[in-house]
């Protein structure tokens, strides 16, 4: 029988802010652990049939967690990481998926702004960007590689080169956006910041304890997407998009 100490349950409940603590059949709470849980009002969950000593459930548990629990009901504060694996809703990979959702929404609003100003070509390029971003959930959930990156005709190397030296390639130096810039340019600028936030969320979701990344391909894709947003802004400022 494994003992769960106060230190164990403190870690499992993340200082009492996440909860609940799941106690399996082969585990027992120490008195100190029980006192901590009671004092901090942390919920204790026993997988079906275990708390009352009813023996093993008649059917396999529907869900499992990263910390080894087996559950037959999905708690509202947990969600699917992949398959039947549940995690807390503030898990870094769930937070990352939330940023992907926000990024998709911002792309659509930017397309609307571009089309409203007559930049049909830009709206079309953003449709390609939208398709790329929508595949990110698949890359995550199914562990699929991003593969070769080419966005709107630019390779990763070109995206880096053109965004770093815009005057050389577009005749437009780096600039700071201003409220007098058009709606499309300002929308792309906002979109660029959301891409950046999504990249940071990806790093938080796919790094190990030593800070090394496990999905460098996903982070690279978002980094180069940020470069593409800057290229869009440069091209708008330089008048490289025809308005219709």
TrEMBL record:
- Pfam families hit by this protein: Cob_adeno_trans (PF01923)
Q: Which GO terms describe its molecular function?
A: ATP binding; corrinoid adenosyltransferase activity
Q: What does the UniProt keyword field contain?
A: ATP-binding, Nucleotide-binding, Transferase
Q: Look up the domain of life of the source.
A: Bacteria
Biological process GO terms, please? cobalamin biosynthetic process; ethanolamine metabolic process
Q: Does the keyword Nucleotide-binding apply?
A: yes
Could you tell me which residue ranges the Cobalamin adenosyltransferase-like domain spans?
Answer: 73-235
The record's InterPro entries line, in alphabetical order, gives: AdoTrfase_EutT, CblAdoTrfase-like, CblAdoTrfase-like_sf
Instruction: Please verify whether the record's keywords include ATP-binding.
Output: yes
Q: What is this protein called?
A: Cobalamin adenosyltransferase-like domain-containing protein
Q: Which organism is it from?
A: Flavonifractor plautii 1_3_50AFAA
Taxonomic classification, please? Bacteria, Bacillati, Bacillota, Clostridia, Eubacteriales
């Amino acid at each position: 029988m494994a003992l769960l100490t106060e230190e164990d349950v403190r870690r499992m409940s993340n200082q009492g802010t996440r909860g609940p603590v799941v106690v399996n059949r082969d585990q027992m709470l120490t008195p100190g652990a029980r006192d901590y849980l009671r004092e901090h009002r942390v919920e204790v969950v026993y997988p079906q049939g275990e708390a009352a000593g009813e023996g093993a459930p008649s059917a396999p548990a529907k869900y499992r967690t990263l910390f080894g629990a087996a559950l037959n009901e999905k708690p509202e504060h947990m969600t699917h990481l992949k398959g039947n694996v549940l995690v807390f809703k503030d898990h870094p990979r769930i937070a990352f998926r939330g940023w992907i959702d926000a990024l998709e929404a911002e792309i659509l609003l930017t397309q609307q702004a571009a089309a409203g100003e007559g930049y049909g070509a830009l709206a079309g390029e953003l449709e390609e960007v939208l398709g790329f971003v929508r595949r990110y959930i698949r890359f995550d959930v199914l562990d699929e590689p991003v593969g070769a990156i080419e966005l709107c005709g630019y390779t990763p190397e070109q995206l880096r080169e053109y965004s770093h030296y815009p005057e050389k390639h577009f005749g437009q130096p780096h600039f700071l956006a201003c409220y007098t810039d058009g709606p499309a340019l300002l929308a792309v600028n906002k979109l660029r910041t959301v891409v950046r936030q999504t990249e940071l969320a990806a790093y938080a979701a796919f790094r190990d304890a030593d800070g090394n990344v496990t999905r460098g391909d996903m982070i690279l894709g978002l980094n180069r997407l940020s470069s593409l947003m800057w290229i869009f802004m440069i091209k708008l400022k330089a008048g490289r998009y025809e308005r219709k």
